[in-house]
Design a protein that fits this description.
mainly alpha
Length: 537
Amino acid sequence: MAEAQQQQPEEEEEEEEEEEEEQQQSSAEVTETDEGSEELKESVHTATTRPLLSTRSMSIVDPDDDSPNMIVYRKIEDVVTLIQDETEGVPIRTVKSFMSKIPSVVTGTDIVQWLMKNLSIEDPAEAMHVGSLIAAQGYFFPISDHVLSLKDDGTFYRFQAPYFWPSNRWEPENTDYAIYLCKRTMQNKTRLELADYEAENLARLQRAFARKWEFIYMQAEAQVKIDRKKDKTERKILDSQERAFWDVHRPVPGCVNTTEMDIRKCRRMKNPHRVKKSVYGLAEESTQSQSPVHTPLQLCRKGTKEDVKKEILFLNTQLDRHCMKMSKVSESLISYTEQYMDYDPFVTGQELPNPWTSDDPSFWDLEASKDPSLQRVKKWGFSLEEALKDSAGQELFLKFLESEFSSENLRFWLAVQGLKRMPQQEVAQRAQDIWAEFLAEGAPSSINLDSHSYERTNQNLKDPGRYSYEDAQDHIYKLMKSDSYARFLRSNVYQDLLKKKVNPDTEQGRRTSLEKFTRSVGKSLASKRLTGLMQSS
């Protein structure tokens, strides 16, 4: 119940935010012009509204479909239907607190106990595993976490609406995902704030759909206005179910995408004219992605002059594609494998235990130490990327650049890398600080950029984000790779370290012989001085 107590204050804050937001929206809608209302009506007609998601009839499972996925989905859905049964299922309740309530939730403990009782499972760990497999498909989900797994504790879970079940064969496009993320940014609620990975995805999609972003924003805005007319409780449930749907199809980095290897895609390729289903009912742009040569004959009309021209254009495009000989590709792959063979603990035996097959972390500790081994030093010579991935290599390369009075290039590159990993609320300020330090007029550590990259970066900073310096960073990286990195490999800094690691005994012997010589010279000088003092006395 400790988690319930933590979630209840969050719900109270969200309800207060919702009330303030509704007041602002009502006042804003009154001041809208007639022209704006007409535009809204047009956009509402183009975007299909989200249906009510609480009815079982929304699932359109084909009972005659015998594909492997559908067989599994039907079995899972039978179990989920039994779990939600009013008499023999898990009790679905509304958790109330002093000023708020969390509607339609169950606890993870209730689900685990039901699975053990009704599926004849004796081990709680096995019941959690089965429940996690069901949750990974999105049939139920935690209300306060993007990771779809089942825990045997008081964590609150909510069942997914049949409309969003994977048996409906949803194949959402990036356009749908962009509308969803854009819609989340318009809603000022704590529970709908974008996570870091979602903010990165939104920035990436905004760059990819720059030409049609106005259309995406209009669709998202229309859906937000429609959702605001719904009941608070229903809206809260719908938002969580939609978020869980995208957690299945665009999962958190590091989680398994259960829709990635889908045998249905192979079946669909036999019928390339099959229309993909869009989550929000948007009509896809009429782009011909299939080759006209491979169009099934029974689905084609009689060829016309335009069809022949399209086929000729397609074949000419294929001829102009850049192709590589298989022998060249094989040689590159073999050389790459041979180069990295000594660094693969599965292929080459290491002195320390393999960390992938044992619990001994000594190998990782050695790789992260400040005193690099011979293998690590050699690896820096493979590419600039390998040198910068290693903290010791990065430090040595920075030391070399400082000796050449060009360390600002690497410091700028590292600053941009750090910008990409910062929390979203700190990105704008950090982006301005980087500009003031490296690119502004009279900057203390000015870097040399071409005019194109400078203008693109200056334009991006009007709306600063994690990837505002992408063009400038690529330019500086190529500059270091083609110029500074080659000199670094030939420099005494790197060559001396490499020789020292190759012949550590020789270096130790030289140091010992030098110490012996110094001591012998010191003893002879001391004896001569003592003899002179005795003779003088």
